[in-house]
Amino acid sequence: MDPLVLRLLLAAKQQDLAALRQLHALIELVAQIGDVVHHLQRERGLSNLVMYTPQTSFQIQLNDQAKLVEQALENTARVIQNIMSSGYISAARLQTSIALALQSSFGLPEIRKSVQHYQLQQEVSQAPCEKYSVLIRLWLDVVIDAAGLSVSAQVSRSVLSLIYLLQAKEYAGQERAWGVIAFSGKAAGGELVERLQVLGQSQNDALRALWPVIDAESSRQFQPYFEQDTDQQYAELKQLMLGLCVHSQASPALAELWYQSATQRIDVLHSMLEPVKANLELQLTNSRQIYDKEQRLLQLHRTEQVGITKDNGPPLIPSTVKYPEQASLLHLLREQSHYISNIEAELCNARIAVQELKIIQRAKLLLIDQHQLTEQQAHHQLQKLAMDRQESLAKVAEQVVEKFAIRNKKSAKSI
Protein backbone atom coordinates (compact mmCIF):
# COMPACT_ATOMS: atom_id res chain seq x y z
CA MET A 1 0.00 0.00 0.00
CA ASP A 2 1.19 3.49 -0.79
CA PRO A 3 2.79 5.02 2.33
CA LEU A 4 0.76 8.24 1.98
CA VAL A 5 -2.50 6.26 1.88
CA LEU A 6 -1.40 4.30 4.92
CA ARG A 7 -0.52 7.45 6.86
CA LEU A 8 -3.91 8.96 6.01
CA LEU A 9 -5.67 5.82 7.16
CA LEU A 10 -3.73 5.74 10.41
CA ALA A 11 -4.50 9.43 11.01
CA ALA A 12 -8.21 8.72 10.52
CA LYS A 13 -8.01 5.88 13.04
CA GLN A 14 -6.27 8.18 15.49
CA GLN A 15 -9.21 10.59 15.21
CA ASP A 16 -11.63 7.70 15.83
CA LEU A 17 -9.73 6.81 18.99
CA ALA A 18 -9.80 10.43 20.16
CA ALA A 19 -13.57 10.50 19.56
CA LEU A 20 -13.99 7.32 21.62
CA ARG A 21 -11.97 8.78 24.48
CA GLN A 22 -14.18 11.87 24.36
CA LEU A 23 -17.25 9.62 24.38
CA HIS A 24 -16.02 7.93 27.58
CA ALA A 25 -15.66 11.32 29.23
CA LEU A 26 -19.09 12.54 28.11
CA ILE A 27 -20.88 9.44 29.41
CA GLU A 28 -19.21 9.70 32.82
CA LEU A 29 -19.99 13.41 32.99
CA VAL A 30 -23.71 13.26 32.16
CA ALA A 31 -24.30 10.29 34.47
CA GLN A 32 -22.71 12.16 37.37
CA ILE A 33 -24.68 15.35 36.66
CA GLY A 34 -27.88 13.31 36.85
CA ASP A 35 -27.06 12.60 40.52
CA VAL A 36 -26.25 16.26 41.23
CA VAL A 37 -29.54 17.46 39.76
CA HIS A 38 -31.56 14.88 41.73
CA HIS A 39 -30.03 15.88 45.06
CA LEU A 40 -30.36 19.61 44.35
CA GLN A 41 -34.04 19.16 43.51
CA ARG A 42 -34.65 17.41 46.81
CA GLU A 43 -32.79 20.08 48.78
CA ARG A 44 -34.88 22.78 47.10
CA GLY A 45 -38.14 21.08 48.11
CA LEU A 46 -37.01 20.54 51.70
CA SER A 47 -35.91 24.18 51.92
CA ASN A 48 -39.41 25.32 51.10
CA LEU A 49 -40.86 22.97 53.69
CA VAL A 50 -38.52 24.43 56.30
CA MET A 51 -39.51 28.00 55.43
CA TYR A 52 -43.23 27.56 54.78
CA THR A 53 -44.34 24.98 57.34
CA PRO A 54 -44.05 24.85 61.14
CA GLN A 55 -42.62 21.31 61.21
CA THR A 56 -39.08 21.47 62.67
CA SER A 57 -38.29 17.83 61.80
CA PHE A 58 -37.65 18.85 58.19
CA GLN A 59 -34.51 20.73 59.27
CA ILE A 60 -32.73 17.44 60.01
CA GLN A 61 -33.70 16.08 56.60
CA LEU A 62 -32.53 19.30 54.97
CA ASN A 63 -29.14 19.13 56.70
CA ASP A 64 -28.67 15.52 55.60
CA GLN A 65 -29.70 16.40 52.07
CA ALA A 66 -27.20 19.28 51.92
CA LYS A 67 -24.43 16.76 52.73
CA LEU A 68 -25.57 14.53 49.86
CA VAL A 69 -25.49 17.52 47.52
CA GLU A 70 -21.95 18.42 48.59
CA GLN A 71 -20.82 14.82 48.06
CA ALA A 72 -22.39 14.72 44.60
CA LEU A 73 -20.72 18.03 43.70
CA GLU A 74 -17.35 16.74 44.92
CA ASN A 75 -17.73 13.63 42.77
CA THR A 76 -18.70 15.76 39.78
CA ALA A 77 -15.73 18.09 40.29
CA ARG A 78 -13.46 15.04 40.39
CA VAL A 79 -14.87 13.72 37.11
CA ILE A 80 -14.51 17.16 35.50
CA GLN A 81 -10.93 17.48 36.77
CA ASN A 82 -10.02 14.10 35.25
CA ILE A 83 -11.63 15.07 31.96
CA MET A 84 -9.85 18.41 31.79
CA SER A 85 -6.44 16.99 32.77
CA SER A 86 -6.74 14.28 30.13
CA GLY A 87 -7.64 16.81 27.45
CA TYR A 88 -10.41 14.59 26.08
CA ILE A 89 -12.89 17.46 25.77
CA SER A 90 -11.81 20.73 24.20
CA ALA A 91 -15.17 22.18 23.10
CA ALA A 92 -15.25 25.79 24.27
CA ARG A 93 -19.03 25.92 24.71
CA LEU A 94 -19.11 22.83 26.93
CA GLN A 95 -16.18 24.06 29.00
CA THR A 96 -17.93 27.40 29.47
CA SER A 97 -21.22 25.80 30.56
CA ILE A 98 -19.33 23.56 33.03
CA ALA A 99 -17.51 26.60 34.44
CA LEU A 100 -20.81 28.48 34.88
CA ALA A 101 -22.44 25.56 36.68
CA LEU A 102 -19.44 25.02 38.96
CA GLN A 103 -19.11 28.72 39.78
CA SER A 104 -22.82 28.99 40.58
CA SER A 105 -22.58 25.93 42.82
CA PHE A 106 -20.13 27.84 45.01
CA GLY A 107 -23.10 30.06 45.92
CA LEU A 108 -24.98 27.23 47.64
CA PRO A 109 -23.78 28.19 51.16
CA GLU A 110 -25.31 31.64 50.71
CA ILE A 111 -28.62 30.16 49.56
CA ARG A 112 -28.65 27.90 52.62
CA LYS A 113 -27.88 30.83 54.90
CA SER A 114 -30.82 32.75 53.47
CA VAL A 115 -33.12 29.77 54.11
CA GLN A 116 -31.95 29.65 57.73
CA HIS A 117 -32.47 33.42 58.05
CA TYR A 118 -36.05 33.27 56.79
CA GLN A 119 -36.75 30.31 59.06
CA LEU A 120 -35.40 32.06 62.18
CA GLN A 121 -37.21 35.29 61.37
CA GLN A 122 -40.39 33.35 60.55
CA GLU A 123 -40.42 35.01 57.16
CA VAL A 124 -40.92 33.49 53.75
CA SER A 125 -39.24 34.21 50.44
CA GLN A 126 -39.40 32.76 46.95
CA ALA A 127 -35.80 33.82 46.25
CA PRO A 128 -34.08 30.62 47.48
CA CYS A 129 -36.37 28.44 45.34
CA GLU A 130 -35.61 30.59 42.28
CA LYS A 131 -31.86 30.38 42.95
CA TYR A 132 -31.95 26.60 43.30
CA SER A 133 -33.85 26.42 40.00
CA VAL A 134 -31.30 28.60 38.19
CA LEU A 135 -28.46 26.38 39.45
CA ILE A 136 -30.24 23.21 38.34
CA ARG A 137 -30.89 24.75 34.92
CA LEU A 138 -27.17 25.48 34.51
CA TRP A 139 -26.30 21.83 35.18
CA LEU A 140 -28.96 20.72 32.70
CA ASP A 141 -27.39 23.05 30.13
CA VAL A 142 -24.12 21.14 30.58
CA VAL A 143 -25.86 17.86 29.70
CA ILE A 144 -27.42 19.44 26.60
CA ASP A 145 -24.07 20.81 25.43
CA ALA A 146 -22.42 17.43 26.09
CA ALA A 147 -25.07 15.62 24.04
CA GLY A 148 -24.16 17.72 21.00
CA LEU A 149 -20.58 16.37 21.05
CA SER A 150 -21.43 12.68 20.98
CA VAL A 151 -20.11 10.73 17.98
CA SER A 152 -22.39 7.76 18.65
CA ALA A 153 -26.04 7.71 17.59
CA GLN A 154 -26.87 5.23 20.36
CA VAL A 155 -25.16 7.33 23.01
CA SER A 156 -26.83 10.48 21.65
CA ARG A 157 -30.19 8.78 21.97
CA SER A 158 -29.42 7.69 25.54
CA VAL A 159 -28.24 11.17 26.51
CA LEU A 160 -31.31 12.66 24.86
CA SER A 161 -33.56 10.40 26.97
CA LEU A 162 -31.57 11.49 30.04
CA ILE A 163 -32.13 15.16 29.16
CA TYR A 164 -35.89 14.76 28.74
CA LEU A 165 -36.09 12.72 31.94
CA LEU A 166 -34.09 15.29 33.92
CA GLN A 167 -36.28 18.05 32.51
CA ALA A 168 -39.46 16.21 33.51
CA LYS A 169 -37.97 15.66 36.98
CA GLU A 170 -37.05 19.32 37.21
CA TYR A 171 -40.56 20.50 36.36
CA ALA A 172 -41.97 17.97 38.84
CA GLY A 173 -39.49 19.15 41.45
CA GLN A 174 -40.44 22.78 40.93
CA GLU A 175 -44.10 21.83 41.12
CA ARG A 176 -43.41 20.10 44.44
CA ALA A 177 -41.55 23.14 45.81
CA TRP A 178 -44.09 25.73 44.64
CA GLY A 179 -46.96 23.48 45.74
CA VAL A 180 -45.69 23.74 49.32
CA ILE A 181 -45.87 27.53 48.96
CA ALA A 182 -49.40 27.28 47.58
CA PHE A 183 -50.66 25.20 50.52
CA SER A 184 -49.05 27.61 52.97
CA GLY A 185 -51.26 30.41 51.60
CA LYS A 186 -48.36 32.85 51.81
CA ALA A 187 -48.04 33.47 48.08
CA ALA A 188 -51.49 32.87 46.59
CA GLY A 189 -52.91 34.52 43.51
CA GLY A 190 -53.14 34.23 39.76
CA GLU A 191 -49.39 34.34 39.17
CA LEU A 192 -48.83 31.26 41.33
CA VAL A 193 -51.70 29.45 39.62
CA GLU A 194 -50.18 30.19 36.22
CA ARG A 195 -46.76 29.04 37.40
CA LEU A 196 -48.15 25.73 38.66
CA GLN A 197 -50.17 25.16 35.49
CA VAL A 198 -47.14 25.88 33.29
CA LEU A 199 -45.03 23.50 35.36
CA GLY A 200 -47.62 20.75 34.95
CA GLN A 201 -47.84 21.29 31.19
CA SER A 202 -44.06 21.49 30.81
CA GLN A 203 -43.71 18.24 32.74
CA ASN A 204 -46.15 16.53 30.37
CA ASP A 205 -44.33 17.95 27.33
CA ALA A 206 -40.99 16.59 28.54
CA LEU A 207 -42.53 13.17 29.17
CA ARG A 208 -44.10 13.08 25.70
CA ALA A 209 -40.68 13.80 24.22
CA LEU A 210 -39.14 11.10 26.42
CA TRP A 211 -41.24 8.08 25.46
CA PRO A 212 -40.05 7.77 21.83
CA VAL A 213 -36.33 7.91 22.77
CA ILE A 214 -36.21 5.86 25.98
CA ASP A 215 -35.78 2.09 25.77
CA ALA A 216 -38.93 0.15 24.92
CA GLU A 217 -39.12 -1.74 28.21
CA SER A 218 -39.01 1.45 30.31
CA SER A 219 -41.61 3.06 28.09
CA ARG A 220 -44.00 0.10 28.51
CA GLN A 221 -43.42 0.03 32.27
CA PHE A 222 -43.67 3.72 33.14
CA GLN A 223 -45.72 5.48 30.45
CA PRO A 224 -49.13 4.23 31.74
CA TYR A 225 -48.33 5.53 35.24
CA PHE A 226 -48.01 9.12 34.01
CA GLU A 227 -50.66 9.09 31.32
CA GLN A 228 -53.48 7.51 33.33
CA ASP A 229 -53.15 9.51 36.58
CA THR A 230 -52.86 6.32 38.60
CA ASP A 231 -51.83 8.33 41.68
CA GLN A 232 -55.26 9.52 42.79
CA GLN A 233 -53.98 11.30 45.89
CA TYR A 234 -51.54 13.37 43.86
CA ALA A 235 -54.25 14.37 41.37
CA GLU A 236 -56.71 15.35 44.13
CA LEU A 237 -54.11 17.37 46.06
CA LYS A 238 -53.12 19.15 42.88
CA GLN A 239 -56.69 20.22 42.20
CA LEU A 240 -57.11 21.34 45.80
CA MET A 241 -53.84 23.28 45.63
CA LEU A 242 -54.94 25.23 42.55
CA GLY A 243 -58.29 25.95 44.19
CA LEU A 244 -56.62 27.35 47.31
CA CYS A 245 -54.54 29.68 45.14
CA VAL A 246 -57.56 30.99 43.28
CA HIS A 247 -59.50 31.71 46.47
CA SER A 248 -56.46 32.95 48.46
CA GLN A 249 -56.91 30.27 51.10
CA ALA A 250 -54.40 28.09 52.93
CA SER A 251 -54.12 24.56 54.26
CA PRO A 252 -50.63 24.25 55.84
CA ALA A 253 -51.45 20.86 57.32
CA LEU A 254 -51.69 19.45 53.78
CA ALA A 255 -48.31 20.86 52.71
CA GLU A 256 -46.44 17.86 54.12
CA LEU A 257 -48.91 15.43 52.54
CA TRP A 258 -48.48 17.20 49.20
CA TYR A 259 -44.70 17.03 49.53
CA GLN A 260 -44.82 13.30 50.20
CA SER A 261 -47.24 12.65 47.34
CA ALA A 262 -45.24 14.75 44.88
CA THR A 263 -42.04 13.06 46.08
CA GLN A 264 -43.49 9.63 45.29
CA ARG A 265 -44.09 10.82 41.73
CA ILE A 266 -40.56 12.18 41.49
CA ASP A 267 -39.17 8.94 42.92
CA VAL A 268 -40.85 7.07 40.06
CA LEU A 269 -39.15 9.44 37.62
CA HIS A 270 -35.87 8.94 39.47
CA SER A 271 -36.21 5.16 39.20
CA MET A 272 -36.34 5.63 35.42
CA LEU A 273 -32.82 7.04 35.60
CA GLU A 274 -31.44 3.59 36.43
CA PRO A 275 -32.16 1.94 33.05
CA VAL A 276 -31.01 5.10 31.26
CA LYS A 277 -27.75 5.15 33.20
CA ALA A 278 -27.39 1.37 32.75
CA ASN A 279 -27.74 1.89 29.01
CA LEU A 280 -25.08 4.59 29.13
CA GLU A 281 -22.80 2.27 31.10
CA LEU A 282 -23.33 -0.43 28.46
CA GLN A 283 -22.45 2.06 25.74
CA LEU A 284 -19.37 3.03 27.73
CA THR A 285 -18.28 -0.62 28.02
CA ASN A 286 -18.87 -1.19 24.31
CA SER A 287 -16.96 1.94 23.30
CA ARG A 288 -14.04 0.93 25.51
CA GLN A 289 -13.94 -2.51 23.88
CA ILE A 290 -13.98 -0.87 20.46
CA TYR A 291 -11.23 1.49 21.64
CA ASP A 292 -9.03 -1.41 22.74
CA LYS A 293 -9.58 -3.23 19.45
CA GLU A 294 -8.85 -0.13 17.38
CA GLN A 295 -5.76 0.60 19.47
CA ARG A 296 -4.40 -2.88 18.76
CA LEU A 297 -5.10 -2.51 15.04
CA LEU A 298 -3.47 0.88 15.00
CA GLN A 299 -0.36 -0.47 16.69
CA LEU A 300 -0.24 -3.39 14.23
CA HIS A 301 -0.40 -1.14 11.19
CA ARG A 302 2.04 1.35 12.66
CA THR A 303 4.51 -1.54 12.91
CA GLU A 304 3.71 -2.38 9.32
CA GLN A 305 4.31 1.21 8.25
CA VAL A 306 7.80 1.07 9.74
CA GLY A 307 8.53 -1.86 7.47
CA ILE A 308 7.33 0.04 4.41
CA THR A 309 8.85 3.48 4.91
CA LYS A 310 11.74 4.99 6.74
CA ASP A 311 11.79 8.62 7.84
CA ASN A 312 8.90 9.34 5.48
CA GLY A 313 11.15 8.43 2.57
CA PRO A 314 10.37 6.29 -0.50
CA PRO A 315 8.91 2.81 -0.06
CA LEU A 316 11.45 0.20 0.96
CA ILE A 317 9.16 -2.39 -0.67
CA PRO A 318 7.96 -1.54 -4.22
CA SER A 319 4.27 -0.70 -4.34
CA THR A 320 3.76 -3.29 -7.09
CA VAL A 321 4.83 -6.08 -4.75
CA LYS A 322 1.93 -7.95 -3.17
CA TYR A 323 2.16 -8.80 0.55
CA PRO A 324 -0.45 -10.35 2.90
CA GLU A 325 -0.93 -7.30 5.05
CA GLN A 326 -2.32 -5.30 2.13
CA ALA A 327 -5.57 -7.26 2.18
CA SER A 328 -6.25 -6.38 5.82
CA LEU A 329 -5.35 -2.75 5.23
CA LEU A 330 -7.63 -2.48 2.23
CA HIS A 331 -10.42 -4.06 4.26
CA LEU A 332 -9.75 -1.58 7.06
CA LEU A 333 -9.88 1.29 4.58
CA ARG A 334 -13.24 0.17 3.17
CA GLU A 335 -14.53 -0.45 6.68
CA GLN A 336 -13.47 3.06 7.73
CA SER A 337 -15.27 4.65 4.77
CA HIS A 338 -18.43 2.62 5.42
CA TYR A 339 -18.32 3.48 9.14
CA ILE A 340 -18.05 7.21 8.49
CA SER A 341 -21.01 7.15 6.08
CA ASN A 342 -23.20 5.23 8.51
CA ILE A 343 -22.34 7.22 11.61
CA GLU A 344 -23.07 10.55 9.88
CA ALA A 345 -26.50 9.33 8.81
CA GLU A 346 -27.33 7.89 12.23
CA LEU A 347 -26.21 10.99 14.08
CA CYS A 348 -28.23 13.38 11.93
CA ASN A 349 -31.59 12.97 13.70
CA ALA A 350 -30.07 12.86 17.17
CA ARG A 351 -28.13 16.06 16.54
CA ILE A 352 -31.23 17.80 15.20
CA ALA A 353 -33.07 16.98 18.44
CA VAL A 354 -30.16 18.24 20.56
CA GLN A 355 -29.91 21.41 18.48
CA GLU A 356 -33.61 22.05 19.03
CA LEU A 357 -33.10 21.76 22.78
CA LYS A 358 -30.22 24.23 22.59
CA ILE A 359 -32.21 26.79 20.59
CA ILE A 360 -35.16 26.52 23.01
CA GLN A 361 -32.82 27.09 25.97
CA ARG A 362 -31.24 30.04 24.16
CA ALA A 363 -34.61 31.63 23.43
CA LYS A 364 -35.73 31.22 27.05
CA LEU A 365 -32.56 32.87 28.33
CA LEU A 366 -33.07 35.81 25.99
CA LEU A 367 -36.66 36.26 27.18
CA ILE A 368 -35.56 35.99 30.81
CA ASP A 369 -32.80 38.59 30.39
CA GLN A 370 -34.75 41.05 28.25
CA HIS A 371 -38.14 40.94 29.98
CA GLN A 372 -37.20 39.90 33.55
CA LEU A 373 -39.27 36.73 33.31
CA THR A 374 -38.94 33.56 35.33
CA GLU A 375 -37.92 30.45 33.41
CA GLN A 376 -41.49 29.14 33.67
CA GLN A 377 -42.90 32.38 32.25
CA ALA A 378 -40.40 32.32 29.38
CA HIS A 379 -41.25 28.70 28.60
CA HIS A 380 -44.98 29.49 28.78
CA GLN A 381 -44.53 32.40 26.41
CA LEU A 382 -42.79 30.18 23.87
CA GLN A 383 -45.53 27.56 24.24
CA LYS A 384 -48.24 30.18 23.69
CA LEU A 385 -46.47 31.53 20.59
CA ALA A 386 -46.15 28.00 19.22
CA MET A 387 -49.87 27.33 19.74
CA ASP A 388 -50.92 30.68 18.25
CA ARG A 389 -48.73 30.24 15.18
CA GLN A 390 -49.36 26.48 14.93
CA GLU A 391 -45.62 25.86 14.76
CA SER A 392 -43.22 23.72 16.74
CA LEU A 393 -41.62 25.02 19.92
CA ALA A 394 -38.17 24.79 18.31
CA LYS A 395 -39.30 26.80 15.26
CA VAL A 396 -40.75 29.57 17.43
CA ALA A 397 -37.60 29.58 19.58
CA GLU A 398 -35.48 29.99 16.45
CA GLN A 399 -37.61 32.97 15.40
CA VAL A 400 -37.19 34.56 18.84
CA VAL A 401 -33.40 34.16 18.68
CA GLU A 402 -33.29 35.63 15.16
CA LYS A 403 -35.46 38.56 16.24
CA PHE A 404 -33.11 39.40 19.11
CA ALA A 405 -30.08 39.05 16.81
CA ILE A 406 -31.58 41.53 14.29
CA ARG A 407 -32.45 43.95 17.10
CA ASN A 408 -28.89 43.77 18.46
CA LYS A 409 -27.43 44.46 15.00
CA LYS A 410 -29.63 47.53 14.60
CA SER A 411 -28.63 48.76 18.04
CA ALA A 412 -24.96 48.28 17.22
CA LYS A 413 -25.28 50.28 13.98
CA SER A 414 -27.01 53.16 15.72
CA ILE A 415 -24.14 53.58 18.20
Keywords:
415 residues; mainly alpha; Arc Repressor Mutant, subunit A; 2 domains; 14 helices; globular
Provide a count of the helices: 14
Helix content: over 70%
Report the structural category: mainly alpha
- The secondary-structure element order is HHHHHHHHHHHHHH
Distance between the termini: 62 Å
Number of domains: 2
Return Rg in Å.
26 Å
The parts where pLDDT drops under 50 for at least 5 residues are: 308-325
Average of the residue pLDDT scores: 79
Bin the strand percentage.
under 5%
Instruction: State the shape.
Output: globular
The count of strands amounts to 0
> Biggest sheet: strands, sense, closure?
none
What is the strand and helix layout of this fold?
Layout: H1 3-52, H2 58-86, H3 92-105, H4 108-120, H5 127-147, H6 153-184, H7 190-210, H8 216-227, H9 232-246, H10 253-271, H11 273-308, H12 325-371, H13 375-389, H14 393-414
Helix pairs in contact: 1-2, 1-4, 1-5, 1-6, 1-11, 1-12, 3-5, 5-6, 5-12, 6-7, 6-10, 6-11, 6-12, 7-13, 9-10, 12-13, 12-14, 13-14
